[in-house]
Amino acid sequence: MLITSIKYSKDKHTSDCQYALSDNKTTITINEDLIKEFHSLRIEFDCDIALIRHHDYKWINSSQPSLSNWYSPKILKLKNGVYVQANTPKGIWQYSPKEKHVLLWHFNVEFSKPMTHYSGNRNAKQIVQSTFLQFKVPLELLMSKKGAVEFSRSKIPFKAIACFTDHCDFDTEENLILQREFLKNTI
Description:
mainly beta, 2 helices, 40% strand
């Protein structure tokens, strides 16, 4: 039975969340009103989390806290050898070694979405909450003893890449100076 409970969670307040267990997955039924109120799911396993897949595709042990953002694999391995993987990159997974059997899955985290607004000669930075609270496909936790399915986004699979963009949200004077300094020292 791998999962003992799933609850909507905010601060110390919780509310039960409906979910269905099967042999190789857990399907989570999201109540959109409750997820807007609570912002997070608290998932409790029947054994401790042993390893967490980090954004660089390396395993980190459960003695360290971990955050897995939308660009990170959402994969962990339990002490009993079962791999647990999200079916979507939505949200942020948070793990704390203070509660080794608990995973928090956040969907509307305060200060999680940086935005830069241009207004003439002045750049106004603003950090707002994320806005992806629509669930068109049910959330699922996929489970396997054989491993997880991973896709690499880089040209050389599972290797780091540098990305230079013309995306205006990141082209502030401060960021451009840092990029130029980095390139000057590495090329």
